[in-house]
Amino acid sequence: MGFKAKICVGFCLFVATLLISATITLGSSESNQEMMICKMKCEQTIGIDQEDEKPRCIKSCEKYHKEKGKWEREGDRGQRGDTSGSERGWGNDRQQRYSDNPYVFEDQHFTARLETEQGNVRVLQKFSDRSELFNGIEKYRASFLEAEPQTFIVPNYRDAEALIFVANGQGTITLIERDSRQSHNIKRGDLFHVPAGITVYLTNTDNNERLVLANILHSVSVPGDLQIFSVGGGDPESSFFNAFSHEVIEAAFNVDRESAQKLIGQQKQQQDIFKKATKEQIRSLAGEDKGRLWPFGDRKETSRHTSIYKNKPSVANENGILHEVDSKDFPDLQDINVAVSFFNITRGSMAGPFYNTKATQVLMILNGVGRFEMACPHLSEQTTRTHTGEINPRYEQVSSELRHGTVVVIPVGHPVVIEASGEQNLEVIGFGLNSDENEWFPLAGRENVLSRWEDEALELTFGFPAQEVKRVIQKQNQKLFFKGPARRGRASG
Predict the structure, then answer these.
(1) Are 319 and 205 in contact (CB under 8 A)?
(2) What are the distances in angstroms from CA 27 to CA 19, 95, 156, 256, 471?
């Protein structure tokens, strides 16, 4: 058994050496030759007594080549590696950047977008298109919508459930359900659920502020594919009515050709889903929350919204505030299996390390500048198998700068830290996907997981007397939010 273990460990080191050697020799521009050389060395170097290792070696070459090519094509701007000491900073050019960080999404990863003078929509690429690591959340998409003051967004519906968070501004949202029309005034901090197939339109009712929405979409048809359906607002082809013949439209509405043209031809004059509205139109669309039942409807009005600020903060201290909403607080969240967390991290402070037990967390940066660090077993090239077939994990640091519009995916169980720069607070909305029965556990500070271990477990794990370990893990008396490295440095200086 000892001999087999040596062969296995030697094999893993050998494959890593092949990949590194091929990379140095050829560079990223000759990736096909790189894979060929890697396979060739598998054939030439592995001995007869290790013949069964050749398929594994070749498979490792192919997997490495596939993942490396995908990340390089996407032009990743994330970072990996040690950024301690003098190179730590916000936008420091000396920090080394790598192209193999699939956890960070920036502007170039928003593959569907519409930008106009009155507003814009940006939809993030499929998570599973970025990496196979995200196959478990392939039904979800993330998006931002921004509308200028006094702007109307034309009615539309999607083949997806939508969870909307109001990151900035105020407005009115109107839903057309089967037997009612419901309008609700929305403001910063509000959460709104729009079911699939329900027609919705939005109005930014403010005279000065931009309306900014951060959204999670849950597809109900093809996983991760989204389709928007609209009767107009863009060019003539943007109305689904234009897909039908004139005769069908005339018969459906019982009108003549000239009248039908008002439905299918009006887009030629105003080619935009974002419309500048007059003050009178804004006043009419806004007003108090209201619902209207159709003449023969007796369905009760449904509340599809709440506020992230409805309950007291889950955690609050001088270093930050955490607000949380789950399906117990807002039953609509059960439909899309999502929980919501809003972090407001004081400048120079940090949240974590912590981890989630069952939810994959999608963090969307709303305001401020910061940085995150995460312990990741997936990217490490040092993982080896023992002679018993078990995995000895090696964890690698994944890190990146954070700014408005950055999206970060934190997989289940991955310890993470979110830091705010020393200049301003960092605001982050977190959507916990597949959140049923999820819990988050702090790894430092008050109520951290380690503080609940038995003394013997501490001694056997860390190799020091339990009391010495406790002095370390119990020193921090705050929960979740702490002074970050920047503030600690200033205090000690």
Answers:
(1) no
(2) 11, 21, 48, 67, 49
Co-location of 363 and 454 in the same domain: yes
Q: What are phi and psi of 282, to 5 degrees?
A: -60, -45
Domain that holds residue 160: 111-233+272-306
Task: Answer whether residue 101 is part of any domain.
Answer: no
* CATH number of residue 130's parent domain: 2.60.120.10
Three-state DSSP state, 358: coil
Alpha-carbon distances, residue 351 vs 88, 149, 347, 419, 469 (angstroms): 18, 34, 11, 6, 22
Give CA–CA dist 70/52, Å, rounded: 29
Residue 88 belongs to some domain of the structure:
no
| Residue matched to tokens 């909305």 | 429
Write the pLDDT tens digit of every residue in 461-479: 999 999 999 999 999 999 9
* Closest of 326, 320, 325, 309 to residue 418, by C-alpha: 320
pLDDT digits (tens, 9 = 90+) for 162-171: 999 999 999 9
* Cβ atoms of residues 75 and 91 within 8 Å: no
Q: Are 479 and 317 a contacting pair, CB within 8 Å?
A: yes
Entry field: residues in the chain:
493
Q: Sign of torsion, CA 179 215 201 218?
A: negative
**How high is the pLDDT of residue 4?**
41
Give the separation between CA 103 and CA 97, rounded to whole angstroms. Answer: 14
Q: Tokens representing 397?
A: 């640091």
Over 70: is that where the pLDDT of 121 sits?
yes
Instruction: Identify the burial level of 38 via C-beta atoms within 10 angstroms of its C-beta, where 0-12 means exposed, 13-18 middle and 19 or more buried.
Output: buried
What is residue 480's predicted lDDT score, i.e. its pLDDT?
96
Contact criterion met (CB below 8 Å) for 217 and 160:
yes
Q: How many domains does the chain have?
A: 3
Residue 285 lies in a domain: yes
Are 362 and 411 part of one and the same domain?
yes
302 located within any domain: yes
**Residue 140: its H or E element:** strand 140-147
Q: Are 482 and 445 in contact (CB under 8 A)?
A: yes
179 token code pair: 């037997």
Contact 75, 108 (CB under 8 A): yes
Nearest alpha carbon to residue 205 among 170, 175, 174: 170
**Do 295 and 316 fall into the same domain?**
no
**Is residue 344 over pLDDT 80?**
yes
